[in-house]
Amino acid sequence: MRKFHLLLVTTTLLMIGPFASAPAKPTLPAQDENQGEEQDALAEFRAAIDDLRATMLQPGERVAGWDRGGADPDAELRALGADSHYFLTRGETGVGVSILTDRAIADFAPRAWRIADSYGDAGERLDNPQIDFVPVSDRYIMATRSHSWRQNDAGCFRNLSHSLLYEVPGAPSRPDDETVPMMFRMFILAMEDQTVCVRSDGDRVHGWHSRFFMPDGRLLPALTNADDLTTIVPAAPVDTLIVVAPASEQSN
Prior knowledge:
The protein is of the alpha+beta class. It has one domain. 25% of the residues lie in helices and 29% in strands. It has six helices and eleven strands. β5 (140-151) and β6 (154-158) form a beta hairpin. The longest helix is centred in the first third of the chain and has 24 residues, at 33-56. The two termini are 27 Å apart. 35% of the residues are buried.
C-alpha cells in the first residue's frame, strides 16, 4: 500500500486553491484589532482545512467487492527484498518513492537537504511502517512515515507518524513555493484521523494501478487516477529516483 498518489493529489489541490475565501473583516475597536485579526485568520485557516478534506475525501459510488481480489504489491516487493527494492509511482504530477522499512526518514534523505518543517515522532514504533518521498517542487520534498494494514485484499492507512518537509539547497524556485510550508501543515491536519484504503490491480511485470476508497467501499474519485502506475525498482539514492513534473504540467 502506498500513500504517494494521495500526497501528490493533495499537493496539486493546494497549489491551485484557495480552499476558503477570506472572511469579511468586522469593524473593531483599536485595542481589539489584533485579537480580531488573529481570530479571522484562524477561522479562515480552519475553513481551508475543512474544504481541503471535503475535496480530497468526497465519496463517490459504492463499489461492490472493492476489497476482494486485489493485488498485494507490498508482498511482491518484500519477496524481492525490501532493503534492495523500492516502489516508484509515476503520475501526472511527478515521480515519487515509497520504501517499506522500519528505519527513520532521515536515514534515506540526502545529507544536503535541509529540514524546513517537521511533524510527529521520528522514533515511534509501527507494525508495518512505510516511508514516502513526494516531490512538491524543485525546491521542496515532502517525506512521510506511517503504517498500513490489510483489509481483506486492500491496504489501508490512518494518520502520519512522522513527516518532514525538506528544502533542497540551490534548487530553482517557483512562484508557488512560498505556499508549500502552509500546504505541508494543511495536508497533515486535513488527513488527521481519516482512514483511506487503496485497492491495487496489476502484477510485478506490468506494474499496478490503484483506486482509493473509504473503508466502507465508496470510491474516492479525487484521489484516483487511472493513469498512475506503481512499479518496483532496485534501491538507489532517493534524490536520483524522484522526478518533479514541470510547473506547467502540475498546474494542468
